[in-house]
Amino acid sequence: MSCTVVVGSQWGDEGKAKMIDFFSKDADIVVRYQGGANAGHTVVVQGKKYVFHLIPSGILHPGKICVIGNGVVIDPEQLVKEMDDLKSQNIDIEGRIILSDAAHLILPFHKAIDSAMEEFRSAKIGTTGRGIGPSYADKCYRTGIRIGDIFDEDLLEEKVRLVLDYKNLQLEKIHGRKGFSIDEIMDILIKFRNTVKPMVTNTAYYLNEAADAGKNIILEGAQGFGLDIDHGTYPFVTSSNPTIGGALLGSGLNSFQINRVVGITKAYITRVGEGPFPTEETGETGNILREKGGEYGATTGRARRCGWFDVELLKQARRVCGFTELAFIKMDVLSGLDSIKVAVGYELNGKKVDSFPSSLLHKVKPVYEDLPGWSEDISRCTAIDQLPKNAQNYIEYIEKKTGIPIKVVSLGPDRENTIVR
Ligand code: IMP
Fold first, then answer.
1. For 292-304, what is each residue's pLDDT tens digit?
2. 0.85 exceeded by the pTM?
3. Which residues form the catalytic set?
4. What is the pLDDT of residue 355?
5. Which fold has domain 104-195?
6. Ligand 1 mutation target, pool 6, 231, 238, most atoms within 8 A of CB
7. Pairing state of beta strands 309-310 and 339-348?
8. Hey, what's the torsion of the CAs at 366, 341, 281, 308, to 10 degrees?
9. Ligand 1 pocket check for 273: Cβ under 6 Å
10. CATH code for the part of the protein at 266-420
11. Residue 221 CB partners (closer than 8 Å, separation 6+)
12. Which of 298, 286, 75 shows the shortest CA–CA distance to 188?
């Protein structure tokens, strides 16, 4: 049995989907454990681009089972659309998608409240508007609608009425927006029930049985360490735990079953939405990284903020997640830069900071070291020793500074542009 957790080590968009697709060839089951359709996971196979928001990226490998765990918040219309898109591309999904009966649903009023709250705030978070926060909030209020609820015909309408009456009051009285009718919400739920009925089960039970039977399982995180609601840059975070704890809670597997934790890390850093970003480059370098790296959101199309690699952020992600290795992504984007900066520490009020100051990250100044760049196009290299010396040095430097071995290097979006060390 092998159970690998794949976690974003920065602020999301590190290239997790590409790596999950890559690791999936050796897996039996791929499990998405948190987040929702706020994620935009892009996989490129032989030049063809696929974007997933909910379905695990392992779906492109024939025969692999894809589980959406209890920690995920599911927008029914989005999930059905994604399944239809896959079918229309002749990808056989029959019997390959399993949904947790304990996963919470995102309904239209969650999306309306997400946008109304964003308008209401003076300091915007820059959410994706997909209803993520409001759905997780209902889970905590214990007014959420779970997939399992849609099969209980006696109680479903009563549960929907409770949450809807309250949401309509909030939308109409506080935000001056239009509410929703019970019929339109029930309609979505009943259609969804008919489509997904054979796919729904207790996935914690299913996954534990699979682990006991020696299956290889990959747990797929969305977003990244810096967006974790507990460990990230609160309040500029998402409403779930992309970190290792979220993988356990959102799947129902236990810590003794995990034997590998891969931190996915870009060779530079990006962030989309508001919040502190010590190594952000707002000038020419940021523009170069954005354009060369195609740094535009796969979900919202927003331009991502770009900056230099931050060792302190990665070290804190390692403390929380216990990475056993790193996958180093998008190194090809750095080709052509004369020199590459790496933040190796922070200063606060002119003094070196010793711990990781999560709540003061907006005030720190990064301390940089400069490394020589390389000019060659490296995207076609197939082995580490084909890389220019300065690119090899960059990999070794990051390994040394973070204390984590880099086992995979990605030099382009396609499956083929991947080197295993
Ligand atoms: P929410 O998850 O839509 O509530 O958004 C909260 C914050 O997380 C915002 O700054 C979003 O831009 C960011 N965010 C959410 N999902 C992703 C993602 O998949 N990649 C990068 N940032 C994300």
1. 999 998 888 899 9
2. yes
3. 13, 41
4. 87
5. Adenylosuccinate Synthetase, subunit A; domain 2 (1.10.300)
6. 238
7. parallel
8. -80
9. yes
10. 3.90.170.10
11. 5, 6, 7, 8, 16, 33, 34, 35, 242, 243, 246, 247
12. 75
